[in-house]
Amino acid sequence: MSCIKPFTNNDIDAIYQIETACNPSPWSLKTLQGCFGPRYITRGIRENDLWCGFYVADYVLDELTLMEIAVHPHWQRKGFASALLDDLFDQAGQRKIRQCFLEVRDSNTAAQLLYIKYGFEQIDRRLGYYPCNNGHEDAIIMRKTLPALALAET
Predict the structure, then answer these.
(1) What residue stretches are annotated with the N-acetyltransferase domain (predicted)?
(2) Contact at 8 Å (CB) between 140 and 106?
(3) Are strands 63-71 and 99-105 parallel, antiparallel or unpaired?
(4) What is the pLDDT of residues 102-153, one digit of tens each?
(5) C or N: which end of the chain has fewer Cβ atoms within 10 Å?
């Protein structure tokens, strides 16, 4: 049985293992540890008492940035990323967020397709933003505007 709940500094080692398993240029442990506080949303998904994935979002006023989302390779393609995004939008609705932003590697087509499915649109590109094996690759900047109706229902 899976559940989504906040993760804390006590969970950081398991969360960091997911981060390093998923990303060619993972965040440092110190960066992850710095993502706790009133403007951050730090939530993860557990299956049978194991952390399988997580997200970190930063919000100011009515704008949210999805800074990181990751599902351990063993748990990918089981709907966990979609469950995490659904939870993110629930959290955004509770905070009356009107716009969500994210950046994704140009080469990460699977993530881009998932984000498009969730209503994100490309709004810009950062050239050479992410380090990769042969130099740097672009970041695709995406935005989703949350409908006023969804905000009114929460």
Answers:
(1) 2-147
(2) yes
(3) parallel
(4) 999 999 999 999 999 999 999 999 998 888 778 899 999 999 998 764 444 4
(5) N
- Residues annotated within the binding site are 69-71, 108
Known binding-site residues for acetyl-CoA equal: 69-71, 108
Q: Reading across the β-sheet that carries 40-47, which strands appear in turn?
A: 2-6, 40-47, 50-60, 63-71, 99-105, 135-145, 121-132
Going by their DSSP bridges, the two strands 135-145 and 121-132 should be labelled as antiparallel
Q: Note whether 101 and 141 are within 8 A (CB).
A: yes
Could you tell me where the DSSP H helices lie in 1-147? Answer: 12-22, 29-33, 80-94, 109-117
DSSP element (H, E) containing 6: strand 2-6
User: CA separation (Å) from 110 to 84, 96, 104, 124, 137?
Assistant: 15, 28, 10, 18, 16
What are the pLDDT digits (tens) for 83-96? 999 999 999 999 99
Handedness of CA 12, 15, 17, 22 (dihedral sign): negative
Is 115 a residue of the active site?
yes
| Element containing residue 68 per DSSP (H, E) | strand 63-71
59 as an active site residue: the answer is no
Beta bridge partners of 121: 143
What is the pTM (predicted TM-score) of this model?
Answer: 0.90
User: Residue 93 has which token pair?
Assistant: 């609705």
